[in-house]
Fold these 3 entries.
Entry 1:
Amino acid sequence: MRLARIFVGVTMMAGALGLPASTALADPAAFSLSVSPSMTPSFAPWVTDYAVGCAGGSATVFASSGPVTIGGRSLTGAGSVTIPMTAGQQIVVNRPGVATYHLRCLPNDFPAYSSTRTGAVQSEGFLVQPGISFSANVSQPYTIAFDADGVPVWWHRSADGSHPIDAKFLDATTIEWMEAGVVYLHDLAGNTTKEFHGPDGPLDLHDFITLPGDRYLGLEYVKRDCPATPTDCVDLSSWGRSAQEQVTDAKLVEFDGAGNVVWTWRMVDHIDVATENQHWRGRGAAQDVVHMNSLAYDGRGGVVVSARHLDAVYRIRLSDGVITWKLGGSREHESLTVLGPSGFGTFSGQHFARILPDGSLTLHDNRTKEGQGPRLIHFGLDLHARTATVLGWVTDARVAWSRCCGNGYLLPGGNWVADWGGNNFITEVTSWGSPVLTIDFGGIFSYRVEPLLAPLGALRRAMDVTYPRAQAPVG
């Protein structure tokens, strides 16, 4: 049975390359590649992309047989080609009528990683920004795209060496991320195409999304103007604090395509913080009573937000700012009733609520206050019956606790792409939690993971624009 499963996996990977299965299965004995000083992963005929070393300004590629073209030089049989090469540049290896392979040199300061593929991968790969640590002062400047074999095929290094955060594809040709409180949109070559600044200070790092009609929605954390503006004060006397308390609020900021602010909305204007914040009190002066950490347009004129310190998800109607439903947290008049199996419990400290095309909702349940490992939950929403039905959830036996951060995507084929929140790896798992691809970053982690939306070919071409290679083979 195990041999049968391995055979099927190899056949599927060969088919993904457009090769006959018999060709791929025969290839390990017929052809192989290696690179000096290094190549990762080891050669397999169905793996198209490889990370290579180019210490000393060159790389030597060895081919076990021909005909093959390496970096523009043709070999009729076994041989090697030495090619001048610097970080980011690519060597293309072409076996006419069989396959094309892409070898790209990693920079010396590239984040350490290890990739393990153990099953059939449904995503095209991952977009990540490894560079956060709870135990060390690190500042990794890279945004990286890994393919479905766990190989880095695209990256961008921040010019000033600072750590970027919240990278995501807004579409197949645009990547967004934030640096130092400013949101930048980039083309695949890393060129900035738009930027957005908060009206009252830096935009918050947690999320930034597109809205219909070339509009965008971001987030600020702002201190309410108490006591100077009495209506900005919050009564937290039930917590043993002041009846005129200054708190940090979550403020939504809508922009037009030119970066102008066209609408703002503050969370604490619409809820009773003293009641709805049940488990995250005592957070210090001007405390962060909401901690909004995700935004999602629902396709129906509303935005769905996750508020970690309220242990709840809210839907806000953009036309008038009314909260139309709430999921989780304290029971309010707008709350949906959760229908789930016995023992399901509740969610806490959650991140990344997302609305799927069918109207269902997924979220990353950190369970930080529950003392359990995180899980990804899928809810079916019936807004007429005012219910949220638990359709399923998935955990990962390798993860015992999630302090912060994290997200997950439910793929059309049923697998999940997951960043388990403050843990040092990102992964794709099956619906029963079995990992099929894991990329481990050792002592650092990525705030989130995003599935690739851009085709691999477009990512390779963008890298070639950024890192052109004009030199010919020398041996």
Entry 2:
Amino acid sequence: MDSSVVRTSQPIVAAQGLTKVFKDFWMRDMVRAVDSLDLEIRPQEVFGLLGPNGSGKSTTIKLILGLLHKTSGRLAVFGKDASDVAVKKRIGFLPEESYLYPFLNARETLDLYGKLFRIEYRARKRRIDELLDMVGLAHVQHRQMHEYSKGMQRRIGIAQALINDPDFLILDEPTTGLDPLGTRQIKDLIIELGRRGKTVLLSSHLLADVEDCVDRLVILYGGKKRAQGTCDELLVAADKTTIETVRLNQATIARIDQVIREEQGAAIEKVSQPRQTLEQVFLDIVEQARAEHIETGGVEAGGPTAAFLRGQESVNTTGRALIEELLTDDELPPMPVESDRPAEPLESAEDQGEAIVEALLNADETPTPPTTPTTLSAAKSANGGPTTPTAPDATTIPEAPGTPAIPPAAQPADETGEPSHAKPDAPPAPLPDADIDMGIIESLTDDDAEDSGR
């Protein structure tokens, strides 16, 4: 990458004599993971942290994040102590293993991390759409995490590290579990972020991945810094020269070799033809399969880098749009619906249940029904008074409890038009239990109590 970008004076990360020693239960030194490390990561550069397994790379990253406390030395991040919570919102982190909630889908996972950074709803939704398209998982965004392969989970982990548009991005083995397509895309993304002015810390033991991306790098072994510099400073072989031309025939190569012997006193050591890398062959085969529209249940081709990562996130400045940006979706009032007639509110099941309970409670408060001859006769009988037996009407039909009463036959009218009273009226049908006057029953009970007292 081009390292000629103008750097600011204050480093993003500055470590002096940084040391981390892990101790056992008796506080005896067990492992010196980081040993007197001097490190400086400058703004707007891609910095590589290399070394074999167990060389202290992950421990150094955890110290920068404040997840571990240093044993000795000095460490500052954005000019503040690494344990300062205020700097965390400016950092994006992809750990070596993607620890994701297994029963959340891709969209819910990114939404969760967006809420942790308190990103406004509409900006959060827009970023999630762009990130899912960028990592090639938009078509499987509603599948839960435990259904994803390791490489797919890794892509979601990369997306969550970018959801807050960090100023300082830390990637710990970002290409682990990724196919060559994902690896190439991650490298292109790192280069794009570096061009935009982001600071990236890339930790890996895959040297080819780091070589294509970083401006400067440091190599660790046993917790100590063994080498540091740019790729050109560390990788250029100063005692060799490579000449690349179109294909030459043997006669031309022989003449060139003779000239070299006469002028330099040396000879051509090796003549070879350049060949494609296995990565490029793989990418060409996959691209051809996609051109043939072959279906796949895995990762599709990743989209372009998210617009907000390229500094092109749209900002609405109109009055209504500005209000919507300031309010979340839960806080927005419902929009009024214009109509010729007012809409009738729909009752939910809960409202209907409450209405039924209220009706049942009001049933006990219904007014006392008017007194009928049957109840008066029953009251006189209970008080010891004379009762007048009545013959049942021929039209009266005994009814079962709970069945509706059948009205008696209509009486013939006399000359005045009034009903005839030649025969006594038939007794009315007994009232249902719900219509019995409770006041009369209480009066009868009180009368019985007085008679027994006498």
Entry 3:
Amino acid sequence: MENLFHKKGAGYWLVFFTLLLFSQRMAAQPAPEYNRAMIKPSVVHLNPGEQRRFKAIMLPQRREHAYLPDCVKWYVNGIPGGNTEFGTIDPGGVYTAPGKVPSPVEINISAEVMEASNSFLWATVLLGVPGYELIDSWVESRDNAEYFINPHGITIGIDGNLIIADEGSDRVLRFNTKGEYIGDVGSGKGQGPGYFNFPRIAEQDSSGNIFVVAQNHREPRVQVFSPDGQFIHRFGGHGNWEGRIIRPHGIGFNTKQQVFIPDVDLCRINVYSNSGDFLYSWERGGLDAGEFDSPHGLAIDANDDVFVSNFFSPVQKLCRAGRFLFAFGYSEPCEDHRPVIHAINADHYGNIYVVFVGGHSIHKYNNNGDFITSWTLSQPDYTPIWAAVDKLGKVYVVFSGNDEAGVEIYIPK
């Protein structure tokens, strides 16, 4: 009887601690949110001097109708009320286009609605045909490569310089925007803390620390470095159980500086504290709405809404709690190629830049999933691998070609 009691008691304690752990994980996840807003229209084409009214709308909740919020702040290209160059917008949301076509022709309309869980809303005005033009590049021949063997990820640091992960040389490199080498992050190829195997992407948090996601054979997948590139710590060990990672591909930070990492092979998104403690995961592989199929790209906007791209498309937008909102960016196969999505990025207006490998193109969508424009690189064999966008809208694209690799820089026109 005593042994039976101990066995039963052990079972009770096991159930208790399992439920306790589950409740802690649930508490770590943000609560579902439904007090969301939207902006209408999402995209408009106007001529100089024309007007169009925009509306911020609080979406209906359970047994409650939609309504117009009392207080909305309006911006044009980030300027309260706008200006004569890019157009003006009054407190009622009426936008008046400028008297002549500006450069670039794409205008960003922003609405700030504090009562909404997604306080920032964005729409697009087009006063012509949007596009991007090449303004600069730096290229290395594969035969005499000093830095680029197989560049994979690119990001813009908080100091404005570039950080590029090269999985061919197992290095994380820093350059200024002119392509001049500044130095390495970490210790390059090898095993152990501070070393890399197949680094995929590096991103900086708001304090300047550099988080590097790498394959790192059977070692932690995420390493953290100081702003000057010195190793601090690592987390996200190899494996398929809770908090572990098999094949990371991307990284993002929300406004709390929590770390989001997509796992290609496990088809899930792991979320960690900034210090590397595992918080929770969105673990739902599949093809239905809100499910992940080889997730490769991840971006987070100012509302903490999360964009995740499946390798075979589409891009999905999720609220901060992981609830599916909508999908966009479906691939369109052609006779000579089958485009897949390798990476995505976001700018400070919430626009999403989707890198299609196979299609050799970059597609731009606004925050509501509406297509804005697309472009290809300067040479037919240049395949875009990753793209980063600075605060002025300049796009830095790391590419790989048959005989060359490097970076091309584009501005909107």
